[in-house]
Amino acid sequence: MRLHVGCAMWTHRSWQGRLIAHPLPAHERLRHYAGWCDAVEGNTTFYATPARETVATWARQTGPDFRFVLKLPKVVTHERRLVDAEGPLRVFLDAIEPLGTRVHALWLQLPGSFTPSDVPVLADFLRRLPEAHRYAVEVRHPAFFTDPRATRLLEEALAPSGTEWIPFDTTAFFRRPPTSEAEREAWGKKPRMPLRSVALTDRPVVRYLGRDAETETVEGWRHWVETTADWLREGRSPTVFVHTPDNADAPLLARRFHDEVRVRLPHLAALPEPIPVGPLTLF
């Protein structure tokens, strides 16, 4: 029984010297983050495929149980829209090979313009993916959440390959107007996604967006604490990513989420102990 938690990144300016030692060379930052959380979203891979040598440093900084949920490059999902994308996909798969089993899932974040009529393209793409990896899909067109026929169509397309459906829960964030600069910026960028909490596989993945105010973030995730505890009782192994508009306290919040689930399931494996943060230095 294992719950993994994490953030949208492993380095953030506001964490430096407060949660994670500073200064740190780039090849040490992930190791220090991994003392706080045991999973991370690989959002940077959406914009560019990293060098294989860079990925090898990620493997050296994390233990074998650490989880990466890596986003497929946008050239595959957004530019070529899953068609004739074998070349860039092959390059990406070769680059991430050093991570081995740390790759928990490859994440297809599809654009809002991807509609139920495009599902056959997705189904064909999934059929041709290598079986060495597990996959997860995030959709943003509202019909997938509001039209039962569209929901069923997508679930049927995901089933043969054992692909998970990642919900991005923004309901708590959009519950009231923004009150900070970070919230105002996120207000115009984040999708207004309906709540979905159905797991299709034994390894569900959740993305949760709270608020800058800790109390509102915690109140908004109550549903996920109970759902996650239920999944664990069913023998599933979930991964939950906690976001806030400024992400200043995201590692702390991710650990608090884990603690709240562990109150309900005391035998749940504990998170690692953070690496101590040394005093700030000018040299």
TrEMBL record:
Gene3D superfamilies: Protein of unknown function UPF0759
Protein name according to UniProt: Uncharacterized conserved protein YecE, DUF72 family
SUPFAM superfamilies referenced in this protein's UniProt entry, alphabetically: TM1631-like
A Pfam family reported for this protein in Swiss-Prot or TrEMBL: DUF72
Species annotation: Micromonospora rifamycinica
InterPro entries associated with the record: DUF72, UPF0759_sf
Lineage, top ranks: Bacteria, Bacillati, Actinomycetota, Actinomycetes, Micromonosporales
